[in-house]
Amino acid sequence: MTTDAKAKQSIKVNSVNDMARLVDYSLMDTLQCDPQASADGEEHNPRQVYSGHYVPVKPTPIGAAKYVAHSATLFDELGFAQSLATTPEFAQLFTGDLSDVPAPIRPMGWATGYALSIYGTEYNQQCPFRTGNGYGDGRAISVLELVANGKRWEMQLKGGGRTPYCRGADGRAVLRSSVREFLAQEYMHALGIPTSRSLCLFASTSEFVERPWYSENAYSEDPDTFVSNPVAITTRVAPSFLRVGQLELFSRRVRNNAHESARHELEAIVAHLIEREYADVIDATLDFTQQLIALAREYRSRLTKLMANWIRVGYCQGNFNSDNCAGGGFTLDYGPFGFCEQFDPFFQPWTGGGDHFSFLNQPFAAELNFATFCSTLEPLLSPDGKAELEDIRGAFSAEMEYELNTMWAAKLGLIEVESEFVLQLLKIMAKSSVDYTMFFRELSFVPNAFDTLLKCFYHRPNGERLAQWQAWFKTWRVRIEHQGDVAGIAARMKEVNPKYTWREWLVVPAYQQAASGDYSLIAELQQVFSDPYGEQTAEIEAKYYQLKPAEFFNAGGVSHYSCSS
Ligand SMILES: Nc1ncnc2c1ncn2[C@@H]1O[C@H](COP(=O)(O)OP(=O)(O)OP(=O)(O)O)[C@@H](O)[C@H]1O
Ligand SMILES: [Mg+2]
């Protein structure tokens, strides 16, 4: 960070004018602009982008926009006054109208290209030109970067209109998916899991788009109708939005000798990733090869911890492709996601995701994304460097196993745990029908008898299954007693086993009511999600600490969904 940027840290931000004093563009200023880009930012049609890291784009504002919500927590972190969220200038900027922004905020934002690998296999088919040159931020447009309280944040509109990467789609996000992403990002943060964050959410009261969706009481796998929904823009923020897919795009171009600056562009984007996401852990004075090796090691560490965290809280990303895998090692793209209610190792809410991106398979998906990541660095390394990188890649699964065991031990209140003991539990859980969150939360009270846990079951276990449960529980209880300090163990377990999880059927009414202008349930959910490990009030407990009602099992749009946009 420059001294100038440091000096900007402690400003109290009451207005967009104050915000302007914090802006500090790095991507647009240090990376390469597409030489063919139109200087006025009016880039709203699909086209091939052959080189450069970004295309300047003016967002397309949403009509008759209404304030829906903002994150008070993030505002505090940024030093933003809460009242800023409802000022007309703030609304104008974050509903995509940059025509009046005060300098040095620029009157246009940017979109970036990225490549796609699905479960380790490269694809170009999703690009309308079948070359990969038309794939990237199709509706995500970054509008500024700023440094607040010593941290750099990029602010990105999701649903901000068409870009050259829109693939012919409308560039919009509907209110439904925007509410979900807005709430989920801040929930994940409250769970203590690295994630992109939510700044604010605005909805249009005049612009509607249709998406395939499910009619009331539809139990079909695929949507059976089209539903019109207001468009919305949620602004998400993160230190950067660089994805594995981005490095991949530039690395593929080096491999294919696409143009003479390809190698330089790859080097520049990797250096930029290090600067934006790893400056505190990677010494910029090391030679570049050493920085790349350190990057791979650190990224592996972040990814393995992230996977352990996702599993700890029952999160399933649903579509963990390289283009949804953030280079900074945090959670990104809350479209196809869900949280496991009744435990199922293959839980997968997104019908397009398949088993390979299902709940307990995520560590394998991450390993393949990591392999893709490593392969993007290869063209920049000598044979010795490549060998070192290969060792780092090869040790992913061992590190993953260590992180998973550490996580399971914490969830179970044990100092250490063998994979066999965990596997035994997961097998019984998979064969029973038990609520993942409630089970671990109730276990965190360290009950004396297994019967106390029966309220976590959708179907009461009996016969041989009950005997298996009782045997497992007895062994676990003996181990806990052996460790001593039961009260201390219970307290620590409650810090890793959340009480309140994301239950889709309790979120659906919030976005449904929002579509008719009632945002009160969104505010209530923000409150509940801000303290997932707390007991909260008896009223909140009665409403939100509940098993999923039978009618929502297999319900389209609740238990599964095919469209996340
Ligand atoms: N309505 C849309 N208009 C334009 N592009 C879209 C639209 N919906 C999705 N895309 C693009 O399709 C690709 C795959 O979609 P995906 O659902 O992963 O992304 P997303 O939810 O838009 O984005 P992100 O990964 O940025 O959170 C992305 O490159 C995205 O930009
Ligand atoms: Mg995506």
From TrEMBL:
Sorted alphabetically, which keywords does the UniProt record give? ATP-binding, Magnesium, Manganese, Metal-binding, Nucleotide-binding, Nucleotidyltransferase, Transferase
Query: What is catalyzed by this enzyme?
Result: L-threonyl-[protein] + ATP = 3-O-(5'-adenylyl)-L-threonyl-[protein] + diphosphate; L-seryl-[protein] + UTP = O-(5'-uridylyl)-L-seryl-[protein] + diphosphate; L-tyrosyl-[protein] + UTP = O-(5'-uridylyl)-L-tyrosyl-[protein] + diphosphate; L-histidyl-[protein] + UTP = N(tele)-(5'-uridylyl)-L-histidyl-[protein] + diphosphate
Residues the record lists as binding Mg(2+): 324, 333
**Required cofactor(s):** Mg(2+); Mn(2+)
Its EC number(s): 2.7.7.-, 2.7.7.108
Entry's InterPro entries?
Answer: SelO
Q: Indicate yes or no for the key word Glycosyltransferase.
A: no
Give me the residues that bind ATP, please. Answer: 136, 138-139, 158, 170-171, 236, 243, 333
Under Gene Ontology molecular function, one entry of this record is: nucleotidyltransferase activity
Keyword Hydrolase appears in the UniProt entry:
no
Active site (record annotation): 323 (proton acceptor)
What family name appears in the similarity comment?
Belongs to the SELO family.
Q: What does this protein do?
A: Nucleotidyltransferase involved in the post-translational modification of proteins. It can catalyze the addition of adenosine monophosphate (AMP) or uridine monophosphate (UMP) to a protein, resulting in modifications known as AMPylation and UMPylation.
**What name has this protein been given in UniProt?**
Protein nucleotidyltransferase YdiU
Look up and give the organism this protein is from.
Answer: Alteromonas arenosi
Q: What is the lineage of its organism?
A: Bacteria, Pseudomonadati, Pseudomonadota, Gammaproteobacteria, Alteromonadales
